[in-house]
Write a structure and sequence with these properties.
Structural class: mainly alpha
Shape: elongated
Number of strands: 3
Low-confidence stretches: none
Number of domains: 2
Helix content: 55-70%
Largest sheet: 3 strands, antiparallel
Strand content: 5-15%
Order of helices and strands: HHEEEHHHHHHHH
Radius of gyration: 22 Å
Mean pLDDT: 89
Distance between the termini: 69 Å
Number of helices: 10
Length: 254
């Protein structure tokens, strides 16, 4: 095999893109093992946790290579996960040069969203719908939708400056609660609790928590516990952000 180190690096690129896009550890490890076998490695041992990946492979001439990759930030991007899965299936059937695999993965990572309005529209619909679903009025739904715009803007700005996720969650929660209190104070909204609930649904780490349970069930106990603990920390950050504002406004009495 020519340039096994470069080949393994390309395999790690695929795993990193999956993990940073919100894929569960079992999917990441399985994809990397399949790609490694497709490129001729006789054995591949993969360890993936929330913040790191380590891969050790053995070549046909009994050469052992180990590479690691530090994971600093993770999010949720089903578009990337689907694209990488499709690419990996094609590569397993018909392997391509590692340079081309790296280029295609980079194209997936940097590909612009063709429907840029999709995410802000989802924010509006989700917040407004849940505010009404839990018992709020139509005015509460509109107020929740306005607050979700602030959440979206803060999320975009936080990603641009690489703000630490827990800090970003707390800041988003506090700003959203302040905006919700303002809508009630000005008469735009009626029920502060329903407006806040509608927007909290946007911040709850549902996918990371579900992935952590799946990792635990399939035997990746360490990864699952780390992911579950991270989800709990994010939930606490949401509560802390809301509490900081509500204590200043006197709770529901605004």
């Amino acid at each position: 095999m020519d340039r096994p180190e470069q080949t393994l690096s390309a395999v790690l690129d695929a795993g990193e893109l999956l993990l940073t896009s919100g894929a569960e550890a079992a999917r990441v490890e399985d994809t990397m093992r399949r790609l490694a076998r497709a490129y001729g490695f006789v054995r591949a041992d993969v360890l993936t946790i929330t913040a790191s990946m380590a891969v050790t492979v053995r070549t046909a001439d009994d050469q052992v290579i180990t590479q690691t990759r530090r994971i600093l930030r993770r999010g949720t991007d089903m578009r990337c996960i689907e694209a990488v899965n499709e690419l990996s299936r094609k590569v397993c059937v018909n392997p391509i040069p590692p340079e081309e695999l790296h280029a295609r993965l980079e194209a997936i990572r940097t590909a612009p969203d063709k429907l840029r309005c999709r995410l802000p529209l989802a924010y509006l619909i989700t917040s407004g719908s849940f505010a009404v679903f839990f018992g709020g009025t139509w005015r509460d739904g509109i107020a929740a939708m306005l607050c979700s715009v602030l959440l979206y803007v803060i999320g975009v700005l936080g990603d641009r400056i690489s703000l630490q996720p827990l800090v970003l969650t707390m800041v988003s929660s506090a700003a959203m609660c302040a905006a919700a209190a303002l809508t009630v104070k000005t008469g735009m909204g009626q029920n502060l609790d329903y407006i806040i609930i509608g927007n909290i649904m946007l911040l709850i780490p549902g996918i990371p928590f579900v992935n952590s349970m799946r990792d635990i069930f399939v035997g990746d106990t360490i990864t699952g516990l780390l992911s579950a603990f991270e989800a709990v920390l994010r939930a606490l950050a949401i509560a802390a952000g809301c509490a900081l504002v509500l204590m200043q406004t006197g709770g529901g009495a605004v």
